[in-house]
Each structure stands twice: as C-alpha cells, then as structure tokens.
Amino acid sequence: MTGASAGAAALHQGPRGGRFLGSLGEINRDQLGFYVRCAREYGDVVPVRLAAQRGLLIYHPDAIEEVLVTRARDFVKSPGIRFLRSLLGEGLFLSEGDLWLRQRRLMQPAFHRQRIAAYGDIMATYGARRAAGWQEGTVLDIHTEMVAVTRDIVAKTLFDADVSEEAEVIGEASHFLTEYFGKRLGSLLQLVPPWLPTPANVRMRRTVRRLDAIVSRMIGDRRRAPGERADLLSLLLAARDADDGSRMTDRQVRDEVMTLFLAGHETTAVALSWTWYLLAQHPEVDARLAAEVRAVLGGRPPAAADLPELRYADMVVKEAMRLYPPAYGIARQVARPTEVAGQPMQPGAFVIMPTWVVHRDARWFDAPEEFRPERWGGDGARGLPRFAYFPFGGGPRQCIGNGFATMEAILVLAAIAQRFRLTLAPGQSVVPAPYITLRPEPGIRVRLERR
Ligand code: HEM
After folding, report:
1. By alpha-carbon position, which residue is closest to atom 7 of ligand 1?
2. C-alpha angle with apex 145: 410 to 289, nearest 5 degrees?
3. How much distance in Å is there from the Cα of 6 to the middle of ligand 1?
4. Is 269 in the pocket of ligand 1 (CB under 6 A)?
5. Is the peptide bond before 396 cis (omega within 30 degrees of 0)?
6. What DSSP element (H or E) covers 318?
7. CA–CA dist 317, 373 (Å, integer)
C-alpha cells in the first residue's frame, strides 16, 4: 500500500461509486475487498460516500491514533453500529458522554487483572471439559464448538449460571441476533428501518423480548438474594458511584449485562476459530505450541497461574488476531468540527478504520500475509507504530474485556491443544464474512487427532 502520508492536507481522491448509493453497493457486495481496493488505489486517506453520508476511510496508524486517542472527544460511535441500540440499549458499548464515563468507572474494577484471574480457572476447566467430550477421528465444526465454549464461559462468569436450558435459549437468541444485526452492518439492509414489520424484524423484536425476560429475572433474583457470589452480575449490582454513592438502575444493569454477554462471546469465539484454522495449516507452529503446552503443564490441566509461561500460545493468538481481527474495522461519526490527517471534517461525517487492511500492511509487517507467531517474540514488536495493530481498538473506548478475552483464548487453546491436534477436513472453502465480527463461513470442519 503506498500513497499520501497521514499528515498531508492535500485533497484526496476516492472511488466515485453509484449515483444514489455511492459506494454502499460495493460494500454490500464485498466489504473487505472494497477496503483493500481503496487502500491500494487511493492511499491512506480516502473520501467515500455511502448513500447520503460522506466520510473517510483511513489506513495510517497516526491518523487512527488521532481519531481514537488525540481527538477522541470529537467523535461518537457510528450510526451503523448505533442501530444495535434496540438490543444493547445504553450499555457501555454504545453509551456516550457522561453516562459512558460513569459506567466505565463503575465497571472497570470488575475487569482488573486480579479480578479476571479468578475467572481463569473457569475458562481452562470449560475448555478442557469440552475437549473431553470429543472423539479421536471425528470431524466437527470448530467454530460451533468455540461459540459454545465461550458462551458457557461468559454465562458462568457473568451470571454464575451453568449450562442450563436458559444458557441454551440465550445462546440461540444471541446467535440469531448477531446474525440479524451483523447482516445489516455494511449492507443495503441498513436502509430498511427496524420498525417495519418484516418477518426478520418481527422475529428480532420477539427474540429481544425473550432475552429481556430472562435477564430481568436473573437481576431480580440476585437483588432479592445477593449471596456470596463472585460473578460479574454481583459486581455490577454492588458497584457504587465514587462521587454520589448511587448504584445502577435495573434498566442500566440489563443493558450492561446484554452488552457483556454479546460483546464477550462471539468475538473471542471468532478469535479462537481462526487460530485453529491457521494452526491446522501450519504444522510447525502447531508442534511448537504443543511442545510449550507439554513443557509448562506436564500432563495436568492448565490454570490461570500458567499464563505467564504460555508465551508462545500468546504469540499464536496475537498473530491470528492480526490476520483475522474479530473486529475487522472500527467506525466513528464526527460530533463537532475537527480534522483528521490534516483534512477538515464536519459533524455528521464518518470515519472508518479498516483493521483488516491495516493489520496486513507491508509497511509495518514483513511478509504480511504469512502466519508467523515468531514475529511477536523478543523485540519483534518494537518500533511498530501504536496503531499498526489494534484488535481491541484504543483510547478511552478501548475494549474493556481485552485482558479477559486474551486470557480466555490462551487457556482454552492450551486446554484443547494438550489433547488434540486439529487438521482441516478436505474439500472446504472457508471465507471471512464481515458480520458484527469476522465470522468464518460456512464454518471450519476439522478432524480430531489425539496427541
Ligand atoms: C477477542 C475478543 C475481543 C475483541 C477482538 C474485542 C474487540 C473490541 C473492540 C475493537 C472494541 C472497541 C470498539 C470501538 O472502539 O468502537 C471493543 C469494545 C468493547 N468490548 Fe470487546 N472485544 C473482545 C472481547 C470482549 C470481551 C470478552 C468483553 C466482555 C466480557 C468485551 C466487552 C467490550 C465492551 C463492553 C466494549 C465497549 C467499551 C467502551 O466503549 O467503553 N469485549 N471490543
């Protein structure tokens, strides 16, 4: 990728697009391909129009840092993602301004390192438990498995709920909803208002109501009988504002629970699925991972305390998220007049930062298309611009679950790699599909071999 440097105030060129839809038609057909093409043809800062909206695609780490960190106050979440509000309400992912700041402060302690370490053993146990049910020689869809294991982990850490009927219902609902909302993101379906009684919209509303009923009951039960639990829900209910001592309303707790549940499992499942996909194609990496797991654990199951030793596993997950970032792009809308890469921007305009493309930029990564966990070893990451690699975003809106997710991915990976080697079943083609997260479609069929 060559092109204008981020600092240039020059007028930039971009794709013309269609008369009415601008580039929305092309995004609808092939979103990732569109981002790649624009970077190749127009450089680091690319003006685009999506139907009536105008904005910039930006690919340079310095310009991304401006949006996410230096000028973060000039932006809000993008309209494309705000339509998730009918599901996530005013939860941390979507709230803005004072409400967001108060909630972030209230919730931050629940994600401190020592706190989440307590969840590590649950993560490792659930990973091992799932692999214990697998049979040598069988073929299964590893993405389905990873969605199930991360859903069970989030249900346990969030509500202290074991895989009960309720977790199943919640899991099914979340599968439908992520697909429903995911299909709308970056597609022409965005133009269909969610209040129109189409079959999909009707089903969406019914599913949200069912989920609401379950979550409200859990909150009600817990308020009546708080007990001595260490799950995230208890922490949310007990959290008090440092200034006025107030607590969250039930409605706010509902929005946060829904947000953590949905933000917390598909993303990590996707990260793990792509990790297996890459490992299956790189036996030398898989062998090195297995050797580390053997050396660190002997034959015993992994635990949170093993994390510092599982250094290669950490590099493997990091490299998989470089090639297949679960959040394949981050977008914002301008809230007050500002500038990006020397380019003035007015309220209402959007900015899209395509992580998918930045993570594969040859200016920052040698042989960028290759899966090489070793690149993260030693001093490998030194000298990399801060926003050449940003799977969890950055600045004030950085993922609150960053440490949680990393720990979960490493421990589940270790627990499974200890027992099985995964190879790809022949005759399949897997493509990264940009829903809300970057799903492997139609799934990843793998054959299980005992170590
Ligand atoms: C590999 C897994 C994950 C990835 C790749 C990921 C990615 C991201 C990204 C890129 C953002 C920032 C979005 C933006 O700036 O617009 C974000 C925000 C967020 N994530 Fe994650 N996430 C992951 C796991 C989790 C987990 C496990 C949780 C909770 C248990 C979580 C909860 C959240 C929340 C609440 C926000 C909003 C934070 C705020 O705005 O203050 N995420 N995530």
Report:
1. 392
2. 30
3. 26
4. no
5. no
6. helix 311-323
7. 8
Pairwise CA distance, residues 340 & 68, whole Å? 11
**Cβ–Cβ < 8 Å for 126, 232:** no
Does the beta carbon of 119 lie inside 6 Å of ligand 1? Answer: no
Token output for 396? 């004030």
Q: Tokens 């390192």 belong to which residue?
A: 113
CA 19 / ligand 1 centre spacing (Å): 36
State whether the beta carbon of 263 lies less than 6 angstroms from ligand 1: yes
Is the shortest distance between the CB of 415 and ligand 1 below 6 Å? Answer: no
Strand 350-353 and strand 45-50: the pairing is: unpaired
SS3 40: helix
For ligand 1, the distance from its centroid to the CA atom of residue 268, given in whole angstroms, is 10
> Which residue's CA is the nearest one to ligand 1's atom 30?
264
Find the DSSP H helices in 188-231. 199-224
Buried b (16+ CB within 10 A) or exposed e, 51-66: bebbbbbbbbbbbbbb
| Choice from 267, 333, 353, 399 to test ligand 1 binding pocket (greatest atom count within 8 A of CB) | 399
CB-based contacts of 247: which residues, under 8 Å, 6+ apart? 237, 238, 239, 240, 241
Q: Is the minimum distance from the CB of 332 to ligand 1 under 6 angstroms? A: no
pLDDT by residue, tens only, the chain of 451 residues: 444 444 444 568 999 999 988 998 899 899 999 999 999 999 999 999 998 899 999 999 999 999 999 999 999 999 877 778 888 999 999 999 999 999 999 999 889 888 888 899 999 999 999 999 999 999 999 999 999 999 889 888 988 876 556 777 777 787 888 888 877 776 666 666 777 888 888 898 898 888 888 888 888 888 887 777 778 888 898 888 888 888 999 999 999 999 998 888 889 999 999 999 999 999 999 999 999 999 999 989 999 999 999 999 999 999 999 999 999 999 999 999 999 999 999 999 999 999 999 999 999 999 999 999 999 998 878 889 999 999 999 999 999 999 999 999 999 999 999 999 999 999 999 999 998 899 999 999 999 999 9
For the chain, how big is the Rg over CA atoms in Å? 22
81, 185 contact by CB (below 8 A): yes
Q: In a 10 Å sphere around its CB, with 0-12 CB exposed, 13-18 middle and 19+ buried, how is residue 399 labelled?
A: buried
